[in-house]
Known about the structure:
Elements: H1 6-18, H2 33-38, E1 43-45, H3 54-61, E2 66-68, H4 75-78, E3 82-84, H5 88-100, H6 102-119, H7 122-137
Parallel strand pairs: 1-2, 2-3
Amino acid sequence: MPPLTQECWDAAREVAVRCPNLEVLPTIPHEQVGEFLRGATLFAHSSPAEGFPNAFLEAWGHGLPTVTCFDPDGLIERERLGACRDDYASWESELERRLADSGLRAAEGARARHHTQTHHAPEHIHARLAGVLRAAVGER
Length: 140
């Protein structure tokens, strides 16, 4: 698990001061996530301590490809929604590749949006949940 301490936060902010293209932000209120993602180029995810992050769905819903060090069930690589690399040099290389290739970003982002719309939109989730609940109470 990554350390969730004030010292870790302070260290990240110190690094950002020295990197003109890096901004370390505090938690963004959920109602502002869409606005934040609309201004993004891609979604860089560096936490290996996740199950299936809602942040993936939020980014994909905005058409953002994902570069991550964690790929739930191989979904990102299999569906070509971005890339998963578990060593820093390869992870950074995948970020740089997408920053340099707007066509790749657009194609992966379109697949990401489509995946979210066809598998995670409320109407799909509601139908699947209703089926599970019917099965649990013995209805057909």
